[in-house]
Design a protein that fits this description.
Mean pLDDT: 95
InterPro entries: START-like_dom_sf
Low-confidence stretches: none
Organism: Gramella jeungdoensis
CATH topology: Alpha-D-Glucose-1,6-Bisphosphate, Chain A, domain 4
Largest sheet: 8 strands, antiparallel
Protein name: SRPBCC domain-containing protein
Number of strands: 8
Distance between the termini: 36 Å
Strand content: 35-45%
CATH architecture: 2-Layer Sandwich
Oligomer: single chain
CATH superfamily: START domain
Structural class: alpha+beta
Length: 152
């Protein structure tokens, strides 16, 4: 896996950026910026440290799927670490096997650093070779959308 990094300055407090990004007050704000990855993107679960969380969407055939993950760390308004460890196939969790072994344990880390009313969001993600181009194209668009949502 290769570690990719994406960064965006947003004109708002770290608290507002964090709450909007994670959909803390309204899950729709999470769904809006992550729609760049999948128009049906959402999550089920909690952002609390140690909690299980599903990152899900539906494919072109309407089948539900996504990632089975754990919140490895969460320091509100400062840092969130997500550890991915499985695949959701419909209602079935798959946490073992060749498909999962390729990327299990990969992290997605979000850092929020506020300075004079501007918050710098930094995302570091462990990416499999197959997803590097997709992430390099999509994360910047998603962060632009997050900035737009937060600043309006």
């Amino acid at each position: 896996m290769k570690k990719l990094q994406f960064r965006k300055d947003i004109n708002a407090s770290a608290e507002k950026v964090y709450n909007t990004m994670l959909g803390i007050e309204d899950i729709e704000t999470y769904q809006q910026w992550t729609s760049e990855f999948n128009p049906t993107s959402t999550y089920e679960g909690s952002w609390e440290k140690g909690a299980k969380i599903y990152f899900i969407g539906t494919d072109e055939n309407g089948k539900r799927g996504g990632m089975v993950s754990e919140i490895a760390d969460n320091i509100p308004f400062r840092f969130v670490s997500i550890r991915h460890y499985g695949i959701l196939d419909g209602e079935k969790e798959i946490t073992k096997g060749a498909e999962v072994d390729k990327w299990a344990g990969g992290l997605e880390n979000y850092s929020f650093e506020e300075n004079n009313g501007v918050t710098t969001v930094t995302i570091e993600v462990d990416a499999m070779e197959d997803y590097i181009d997709f992430f390099n194209k999509t994360f910047p668009k998603a962060l632009d959308k997050l900035k737009e949502i937060v600043e309006k």
